[in-house]
């Protein structure tokens, strides 16, 4: 980057720099995985991607060049040590976050018919030989998205905005960017808008409250394993529940509502406890 370009970059508002930087850091890295998968096939692609993710996280957390930006990268990656209690409540927050998102999707498709073809479009893993390798591809795909997107959106995008404008503005902007990036997909129905935006808000709040990206990555990974295996590739089955306009408010519907309410409540409680632990 030339001196003139650096000067222009520095003069840009923090929000614009953070949005551009977060998308570049997160989405370029995340989109390497499909290329690796198609070029190398399974299981070699999985090994290469896992090595890449380790190196990527190491660099994003402050390792490697440029050394003059090590402290900034560590801050954006939210590097910090964690206690046993934080790991416990972070795991609870991660698991209940994933459950909340899937419960929200289930409820959406109890109100409108599930468009299986739109959700499956672009996620055909039939070129991967065995079912075991398809599952492994789903797990690695989910891990790639979890690590890279949390680094980009909740780290390199949200953190610098937090530092300048506070957490509320930062979480709002990172969640909007997260939503807009994901709603370019075929499955991006109008009903998915609040779900994707809400997921971004929950992940942003978790990152801020806990002071680390680890739990957001874990929750994102768990969520995406289900998204890849069930909703997108459909190797784990296809959603067959009928909308309540056809089936009525049956027993399953009330159970689904309860699961959603309990999951969200537990996720918010765990996040609040993580904030308390961080501030103590």
Estimate the global geometry from the Cα principal axes: globular
Binned, the helix content reads over 70%
Tally of discrete structural domains: 1
Number of helices: 13
Q: Give the strand content.
A: under 5%
Task: Give Rg in angstroms.
Answer: 19 Å
Mean pLDDT: 95
Termini separation: 42 Å
Total strand segments: 0
Give the oligomeric state of the chains in this entry, treating copies of one chain as homo and distinct chains as hetero: single chain
* SSE arrangement, N to C: HHHHHHHHHHHHH
- Contiguous uncertain segments of 5+ residues: none
Task: Characterize the main sheet.
Answer: none
SS-derived structural category: mainly alpha
Describe it.
With 280 residues, this protein is mainly alpha-helical. It contains 13 helices and no strands. The protein has one domain. Helix 3 packs antiparallel against helix 4 and helix 4 runs parallel beside helix 8.
In short:
By secondary structure, this protein is an all-alpha fold.
What features would you highlight for this structure?
280 residues, mainly alpha
List the helices and strands and how they pair.
Layout: H1 3-11, H2 14-30, H3 32-40, H4 44-60, H5 70-76, H6 84-111, H7 116-120, H8 131-165, H9 167-182, H10 192-210, H11 214-232, H12 244-247, H13 251-279
């Amino acid at each position: 980057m030339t001196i003139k370009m650096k000067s222009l970059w520095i003069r840009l508002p923090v929000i614009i720099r953070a949005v551009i930087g977060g998308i570049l850091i997160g989405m370029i890295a995340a989109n390497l995985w499909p290329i690796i998968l198609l070029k190398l096939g399974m299981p070699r692609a999985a090994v290469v991607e896992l090595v890449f993710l380790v190196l990527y996280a190491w660099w994003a957390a402050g390792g490697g060049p440029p050394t003059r930006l090590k402290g900034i990268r560590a801050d954006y990656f939210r590097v910090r040590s964690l206690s046993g209690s934080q790991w416990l409540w972070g795991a609870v927050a991660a698991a209940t976050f994933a459950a909340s998102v899937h419960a929200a999707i289930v409820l959406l498709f109890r109100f409108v018919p599930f468009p299986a073809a739109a959700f499956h479009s672009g996620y055909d893993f039939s070129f991967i030989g065995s079912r075991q390798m398809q599952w492994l591809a789903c797990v690695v795909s989910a891990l790639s998205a979890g690590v890279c997107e949390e680094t980009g959106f909740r780290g390199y995008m949200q953190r610098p905005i937090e530092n300048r404008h506070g957490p509320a503005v930062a979480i709002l902007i990172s969640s909007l960017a997260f939503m807009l990036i994901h709603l370019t997909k075929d499955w991006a129905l109008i009903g998915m808008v609040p779900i994707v935006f809400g997921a971004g808000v929950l992940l942003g709040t978790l990152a801020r409250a806990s002071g680390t990206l680890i739990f957001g990555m874990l929750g994102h990974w768990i969520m995406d394993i289900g998204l890849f295996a069930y909703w997108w590739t459909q190797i784990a089955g296809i959603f067959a529940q009928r909308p309540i306009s056809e089936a009525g408010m049956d027993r399953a519907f009330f159970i689904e509502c309860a699961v959603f309410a309990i999951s969200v409540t537990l996720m918010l409680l765990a996040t609040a406890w993580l904030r308390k632990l961080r501030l103590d």
